[in-house]
Design brief:
alpha+beta; eleven-stranded mixed β-sheet; five-stranded mixed β-sheet; 29% helix; globular
Length: 686
């Protein structure tokens, strides 16, 4: 990649995902005006679309492969950095802002505009090329969620939230729903509602209704007004504007440029409510002074700060909201009528949370204006805590109701109830889950691995939203009846109840596999600076020992044990491959990828044999290795298994090339074992 593409990547990363957005919803909005301002403001000579278009591999099955290669190289240099495909995604949003009926295209003709933007030809890039772009959007969402708000609160929807007919382009469209002018007007709109004593924050659907009732549509962009009329996209628009309302701190700007926001949270400890601040920025100081004598003092080496100089949490301070400034930082908390507390792993006490966590206990406090909505939600979805606590506890704000402990054992019912009720609780949706993952648990020494747990302290399994209800949860390859209720409820699934034996274990769901290990104790071995052994080449070990360098250490023989050298006596499997195939690949289960070329006819053939080689097929031998043989003919892939084995692509080879090849050929077979390869490739591609 040349300097201009890297410059665009850095500019977009700083502008939309910089640390100044910590704690604020971030919309990756790029239209022609924004692109022009960024180009001139940062001194970039080449326009964004022209820069991206130069690196497309047109006429191939993977026109964006060069951009994806660049992302992988940057990821190796900076694991936690912003995924390096932002220029391409910015172009996809730019195309979405141009979706109007212009006489040549319908308002819904997205791919023609995207292709014309990048290539000048509306037919060069089609919908069948766009799947890799939609995967990039999900990678970006997963990355932003992993930063825990330090790079802005994610506004990219979960796949399940998108209309079925826009399951791919909906990611880009979601970021084009609110223009910069729309977001600038929202504080004025919010303040006009608060002047009438409205309970705050209001859910998004109520805000949209207020816009229509008050006739305020003319203050918003044409794109916003058009989206407001779309039944399929209206729920997504409601969620976006609702998120902005929930994070609004009463200031004239939603996200002051260059100013970091520290969130003011309520803490319940030792029978009293107090304030604690959470600073999402990576740059932290021990002591921060704000105007009005407010002092923030860091708690240990955490992102939390003790707050002094503010009046204690009460009915008045909770419903009015708080804002203090100083040292290029704003400490704020928007007004609220519902306060939800959950156990905080870092603080070790009850603390305010953004949404309900299925399967966990909560303390719920509700102002008089919100008590009806809270009670309706608890009656519909709560497992415990439905009845209000009538004991007169001194720390409960005056006039507010208390429910504890409130648990939601069924996440599906909770989500449905929140959508039905809206009201003051409508914004407390559980956070979106994009991938199968492990959380919690009692980890042993980190040097042994990130997924090694004390026996009896196994983690919980979080299932992705998009595949909820579509798969069977397998632990070590088996269904476990003890977990059926948790899986059906959509909650984090506790593995500690299984009483697993020490050792390695696997979790499979919807074609994805993740692993972890348990042990009764941790034996931390000293690190070795030099390793002596026998180098292995083509399955044969050298006779004399030597120091093993990094590149041959995984395949070398150390001590009296060889696990990596190939077994030359393994039985060979012969497969017939077509000579007329455009491409023949072998995707091994361990992540290696081979291109198989048909052999040329040797010179001696006609001298010794009268007939010609088989014109349609040639033989390929596979020694002790499992995987899938893939053939592409006339643009279509077909595949068949060879020595079937479960995919473990991270163990060897070039996982990036392996994942790309498998995803390109994902329609090659309908067999379940091939679906596991495709799912493993998607996990690698995130």
């Amino acid at each position: 990649m040349d300097h201009s593409y890297q410059a665009w990547q850095e500019v977009l990363a700083e502008e939309f995902f910089g640390r100044q957005h910590a704690g604020h919803p971030t919309l990756f909005y790029v239209d022609d005006d924004v692109e022009r301002e960024l180009r001139h403001g940062y001194g970039i000579e080449e326009p964004l679309a022209r820069c991206v278009g130069r690196f497309l591999r047109l006429g191939t099955a993977e026109p964006y492969s060069a951009l994806d290669d660049y992302r992988w190289r940057r990821r190796q240099q900076d694991q936690g950095g912003v995924p390096a495909f932002l220029p391409l995604l910015a172009c996809s949003v730019l195309a979405a802002t141009r979706m109007v009926n212009d006489g040549n295209h319908r308002a819904t003709a997205y791919h023609a505009r995207f292709s014309e933007l990048l290539t000048g030809d509306e037919k060069q890039l089609g919908s069948h090329h766009y799947e890799s772009v939609s995967r990039m959007w999900q990678v970006l969402a997963s990355w932003q969620h992993s930063q825990k708000g330090a790079r802005g609160l994610c506004t990219i929807p979960a796949p399940a939230d998108l209309p079925a007919n826009r399951s791919r382009i909906g990611f880009a469209q979601s970021q084009a729903l609110l223009s910069g002018a729309d977001r600038s007007f929202m504080p004025k709109f919010f303040r006009s509602l608060l002047e009438h004593g409205t309970t705050w924050p209001l859910p998004g659907e109520t805000l949209l209704a207020q816009i229509e009732i008050r006739g305020m549509e003319q203050h918003f962009s044409k794109g916003f007004r058009n989206t407001l009329q779309e039944e399929e996209f209206r729920p997504l628009l409601a969620r976006l504007i609702g998120n902005y309302a929930a994070s609004w701190d009463g200031s004239d700007e939603l996200v002051p440029t260059g100013v970091i926001r520290a969130e003011l949270l309520v803490r319940l400890d030792a029978g009293r409510l107090s304030w604690v601040a959470r600073l999402r920025s990576a740059e932290r100081t021990k002591l921060i002074e704000l105007k009005g004598g407010v002092l923030l003092e860091q708690l240990g080496d955490t992102a939390y700060y003790e707050v002094t100089g503010l009046p204690a949490p009460s009915a008045d301070t909770l419903t009015r909201g708080i804002r203090r400034e100083g040292q290029n930082l704003v400490l704020s908390r928007p007004s609220c009528s519902v306060l939800v507390l959950a156990r905080d792993d870092v603080l070790g006490v009850w603390a305010a949370t953004d949404g309900f966590r299925p399967g966990e206990a909560h303390v719920v406090l509700a102002a008089p204006t919100a008590q009806r909505d809270v009670q309706r939600l608890l009656d519909k979805a709560a497992t415990t805590g439905r009845s209000a606590d009538t004991s007169k506890l001194p720390w409960v704000p005056r006039g507010w109701s208390l429910h504890k402990p409130v648990t939601f054992a069924d996440a599906v019912t909770l989500r449905r109830a929140l959508q039905e009720i809206q009201g003051a609780v409508g914004l407390l949706q559980p956070p979106a889950q994009f991938k199968l993952r492990l959380e919690g648990g009692l980890k042993l020494a980190p040097s042994l691995g990130s997924h090694v747990y004390l026996r009896g302290g196994e983690p919980q399994v979080v299932l992705p939203d998009a595949t909820e209800g579509t798969g069977t949860l397998l632990i070590d390859g088996k269904e476990r009846p003890e977990l059926e209720k948790a899986v059906a409820a959509g909650c984090p699934v506790p593995l500690a109840v299984l009483r697993l034996e020490p050792g390695r274990h696997t979790v499979n769901y919807a074609g994805v596999e993740i692993g972890f290990a348990t042990a009764d104790q941790a034996v931390v071995e000293p690190k070795m600076t030099e390793v002596c052994g026998f180098t292995v080449v083509d399955g044969k070990a050298f006779e004399s020992p030597s120091l093993l360098v990094e590149h041959n250490l995984p395949t070398g023989i150390t001590g009296a044990h060889c696990t990596s050298a190939a077994d030359r006596d393994a039985a060979a499997v012969m497969e017939l491959c077509r000579r007329d195939a455009d491409e023949v690949l072998f995707a091994a289960a361990d992540g290696r990828l081979w291109t198989i070329e048909p052999p040329e006819q040797p010179d001696w053939w006609t001298e010794r044999l009268t007939d010609t080689p088989a014109p349609l097929r040639f033989e390929a031998d596979f020694h002790g290795i499992g995987g899938w043989l893939l053939e592409r003919r006339s643009g279509r892939w077909k595949g068949r298994p060879v020595n079937p084995a479960a995919p473990k692509p991270k163990s060897a080879g070039n996982s990036r090339a392996w994942a790309r090849a498998v995803l390109n050929a994902q329609q090659a077979s309908a067999e379940t074992s091939w679906a596991a390869y495709v799912q493993a490739a998607k996990e690698l591609d995130r």
